[in-house]
Write a structure and sequence with these properties.
mainly alpha
Length: about 250
């Protein structure tokens, strides 16, 4: 990752393969989630588990990817690392929004309320979401690419401190939200019934595959945006650096 943004070229064939794999895993995960047994106390509402939990774990992975890429930018000053960090954090924001939405729906069915300002997990997740929304706003607000990359790299690293706060908030504070069922300090002592482990694992695999697909797509879009931005600062007309589609090439483009 020492080259510029233009060196990132996710090929359409790779994107298609990633998308197909994600779609297949989504179908499998959906089937296993629907056919899983009903939970004793929460009934059908507990099936939100197979969306809510994978979305938050995948959000952690996306934001962690953004953290690593941001750190790499600070070390090597690589525009490529900045591009990957921005793409990963953008997808992470989407997944965090999904986490909040499904959590609110689940809370309405189980607790009888959409939102509780006294719940540590809810509030800390909302803070995480709005912090990274600010990160995305900052990227749009700064015109100079180097200044933007530097400031956003620092912000991306600082912001990730909130991820362990969100996850362990249910252990540090005794509020409405239940404790962790899977990623616990005592990993060998999961509180989840075995009948739900396989469907949840399938759903998580589907979300991770979807994350890989979305990252590839977002990086490809960012590369095209960078090409258009470069053409705007040269004598070339906008879009001149973006070639027409090619069929039958060796690299599949």
């Amino acid at each position: 990752m020492t080259g510029g943004a233009a060196t990132i070229r996710p090929k359409p064939r790779a994107i298609t393969v990633a998308g197909s794999a994600a779609l297949c895993l989504m179908v499998v995960g959906l089937y296993m989630s629907v056919t899983a047994p009903k939970e004793e106390t929460q009934g059908e509402a507990a099936r939100l588990l197979f969306v809510h939990v994978p979305s938050v774990i995948t959000a952690y992975i996306a934001l962690g990817t953004g953290l690593v890429a941001a750190a790499w930018y600070l070390i090597r000053r690589s525009p490529t690392a900045d591009l990957v960090s921005a793409a990963a954090i953008e997808v992470g924001v989407l997944l965090t929004a999904m986490t909040l939405l499904t959590g609110m729906i689940w809370g309405r069915f189980v607790w009888g309320v959409w939102w509780d300002w006294g719940d540590a997990r809810m509030v800390s997740t909302a803070v995480l979401f709005f912090f990274y929304l600010g990160y995305l706003a900052l990227r749009r607000a700064i015109v100079d690419a180097r200044v933007r990359a530097l400031r956003c790299a620092v912000l991306g690293i600082v912001g990730f401190v909130q991820v362990p706060i969100v996850h362990y908030s249910v252990l540090w504070f005794r509020t409405l939200h239940q404790g962790p069922s899977i990623i616990r300090p005592d990993l060998a002592d999961s509180t989840m019934d075995a009948a739900f482990v396989a469907p949840l694992g399938a759903a998580l695999a589907a979300f991770i595959a979807a994350l890989a697909y979305l990252l590839l797509v977002r990086v490809r879009i960012a590369r095209l945006e960078a090409a258009v931005a470069r053409s705007a600062t040269t004598s070339q007309p906008v879009g001149a650096s973006v070639g027409p589609p090619q069929l039958g090439g060796r690299d599949g483009r």
